[in-house]
Every structure is written in structure tokens, then in C-alpha cells.
């Protein structure tokens, strides 16, 4: 079974489909974490930053907002995403 390296584009497509954001940036910061825990030899696909705004977040606590993002990206977490920095806008 081949492991698929998650990409910023794939994460963004997933978030667009699940959360219908009004603003979305997904940045692969993996190269900055080379040699750190969870990094892989490719230097990509392990550490991401998500900046997102969506109506679904309205009235929810920060924890609930972050949980929505994590739940949407769960399949990527098991594919090797080690760290996910979330900024709700």
C-alpha cells in the first residue's frame, strides 16, 4: 500500500467541500520543521497552517471551531499530517 503525501491543495479542497469557507489559506510549513518530530524525508505533507473563515463557526467556542476543522481533515491526519496550526478568522 502506497502512502500518499498530503498537499495543501488537497487539504484546501477538503475544507472547501466540508466547511464552505468564505476565506481559506492552507500553507505547507513542513520544510521549516525538517528534523523535528513528525517530519518526513520529503520535507512536505506533515506540518500545515490553516487560516479559515466560515459561517459554520459563528457562535461556536474556539474549541468547537477547531474540532470542526480537525474532523474535516481526519483522513489526512492518518495519512501523516503531524501538526495543524489553525487560525479562525
Automatic annotation (TrEMBL):
Family classification: Belongs to the BolA/IbaG family.
Transmembrane feature ranges: none
Entry-linked SUPFAM superfamilies: BolA-like
Domain of life: Bacteria
Name of protein: BolA protein family transcriptional regulator
Listed GO biological process terms: iron-sulfur cluster assembly
